[in-house]
């Protein structure tokens, strides 16, 4: 009986030690196991951290449910964890959850909710979210159609160097179907779009 009590107390001590680890510590361990491609252990630590409220762990755990690494693939659980993280201000979760609502992946399709989540990511100045939300304003899908707002957001994303936004502006200013034609602005954004690959190529050549 005495031995059983000792074993029970020891087990409680181990459990208490695990719980005593902070959410950040558990997240760091989960992230480390993820990079080692030990996905089972990654899920173990990330889930503990996520349940303690760590937004980064919640996002990463959602990602694992998306890829199916260490867990059965489940986009509904992905959406759940990303929403938990998004509600805490995780900008990646806000953006990806918006994409899920737009595509109807893991949740019922709802362009208006997609716009809401992208608005939150835009508030954190995320260029991808700016570009995606701009597309909604241009088409009127989930929001009231507003070409001026669309152009404003797309130019913000392009100014931050987001290539898809730069390419889109070239198309908009060239064909003039969505906004007025402007050859000078089309040429400017084409130059900006073309320069980025050149810079990357120069950097690669210098590294070699």
Explain this structure.
The protein has 208 residues and is mainly α. The chain contains eleven helices and no strands. The longest helix has 25 residues.
**Structural class assignment:** mainly alpha
Task: Count helical runs.
Answer: 11
Strand content: under 5%
| Average pLDDT | 89
- Which value, in Å, is the CA radius of gyration? 23 Å
The H-and-E topology, N to C, reads as HHHHHHHHHHH
Topology:
Layout (H helix, E strand, L loop, with lengths): L1 H19 L2 H13 L3 H13 L3 H13 L7 H12 L4 H13 L7 H12 L4 H13 L7 H13 L3 H13 L7 H25 L1
Quick description:
This protein is an all-alpha fold and about 210 residues long. The chain has eleven helices and no strands.
Which properties best describe this structure?
mainly alpha, single chain, 11 helices, elongated, 208 residues
């Amino acid at each position: 009986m005495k031995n059983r009590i000792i074993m029970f107390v020891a087990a409680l001590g181990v459990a208490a030690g695990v719980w005593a680890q902070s959410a950040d510590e558990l997240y760091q361990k989960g992230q480390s196991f993820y990079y080692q491609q030990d996905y089972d252990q990654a899920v173990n630590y990330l889930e503990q951290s996520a349940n303690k409220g760590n937004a980064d762990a919640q996002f990463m755990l959602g990602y694992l449910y998306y890829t199916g690494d260490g867990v059965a693939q489940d986009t509904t659980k992905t959406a759940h964890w990303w929403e938990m993280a998004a509600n805490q201000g995780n900008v990646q979760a806000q953006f990806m959850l918006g994409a899920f609502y737009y595509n109807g992946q893991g949740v019922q399709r709802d362009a208006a909710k997609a716009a809401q989540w992208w608005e939150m990511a835009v508030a954190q100045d995320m260029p991808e979210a700016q570009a995606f939300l701009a597309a909604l304003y241009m088409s009127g899908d989930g929001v009231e159609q507003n070409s001026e707002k669309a152009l404003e957001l797309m130019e913000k994303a392009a100014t931050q160097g987001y290539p898809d936004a730069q390419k889109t502006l070239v198309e908009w200013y060239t064909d003039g179907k969505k906004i007025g034609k402007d050859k000078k602005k089309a040429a400017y954004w084409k130059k900006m779009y073309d320069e980025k690959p050149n810079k990357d190529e120069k950097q690669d050549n210098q590294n070699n």
